[in-house]
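Format notes (please read before filing issues)

Several people have asked whether sequences and structure tokens are stored in separate files. They are not. Every record keeps both together, in the order shown below: the sequence lines, then the token lines. Line labels are part of the format and must not be stripped during preprocessing.
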Amino acid sequence: MDSISDLRNRLNTDDHRLWLLIGLCVAVVLTLEVVEEAVEGVWPHQRRMSGMDIGQQRAHQIWALVALLVLPAAILATMNVGMMVWKDTPTTDGIRTGAALLGIGWGSFLLANIDRLRLRTLVSRAGPVLPVTLAIILVIAIALLLTAFLDVRPDMQTIRDAIPGLKSSD
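Then the structure lines:
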């Protein structure tokens, strides 16, 4: 029994930020497929713009932009949580606000683009208004998360010291 409790203490499995980091990493990997479907389309007949209304055609390009904005925002959130786990940095208002905006943008993007939910046609009838709004929300989230990360990022020497193969030769 001592070995299991020692393993728990060493891995620090009671830290909820560690589980948040693992969950974010899994969510980013699963979102990659949804982003690919949103940009290229699932089936070749969905790539044809001629079958869409004019509002849907305009919105299709903006949904691709939203898809491409979700990834850097999610990666910045993952990096911020990683720094919180690694260096035990506190959560700032910028991280909270950026994460809330990311959650709104990411969740709305997933709801609009997962085919199993059958919401794509309903959302596409709104035209370009919804994807433009989500793009603005995600740009603000990226700015907040990037600012928060730049405040807590370590210097290069700390990174070299943390990774055994990158120790400096001086």
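For reference, the curators noted about this record: The chain has one domain: 2-157. The radius of gyration is 20 Å.
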